[in-house]
Amino acid sequence: MTVTKVPLPIFTLLLKDSSGPVFLRHANDLWLPIFTSLEYATNFVTSASLDCVIHTLASGDDIKRFIVNPPSRSNKPTPAFLIVVDPVDPNAGTEFTVFRPEQFLGAT
Question: What kind of fold does domain 10-105 have according to CATH?
């Protein structure tokens, strides 16, 4: 499988108090949204009426730390999750890509 490199910086979403990531639920899966531009992240937050913080991941090391050990309010391990890049409304005709964390880390 060939993976295109992700341009830096990338952006993700944190809970309003920055205590943990915002996950999206798709069926039984948790998806961590990643955005390739601040504009995409801002548009997503606005269109979904989310009350959260846009968090910048500026380097490959920042991305790896965040994905391997996301911030958490508790001492419980983070549940298994997938990464969705530039999620948008599928009805808008734009497709998005979903990665397992190890696949995504190979693209950064």
Answer: Trna Endonuclease; Chain: A, domain 1 (3.40.1350)
d(C-alpha 7, C-alpha 4), whole Å: 9
pLDDT bucket at 1, cuts 50 / 70 / 90:
very low
pTM, entire model: 0.85
Residue type at 12 in one-letter notation = T
The residue with tokens 């990643």 is: 34
**DSSP one-letter code for 91:** G
pLDDT, residue 12, reads 97
Domain ranges of the chain: 10-105
**pLDDT, tens digit, 9 for 90 and up, residues 50-87:** 999 999 999 989 999 999 989 887 777 888 999 999 88
What is the C-alpha to C-alpha distance for residues 64 and 85, in angstroms, rounded to an integer?
15
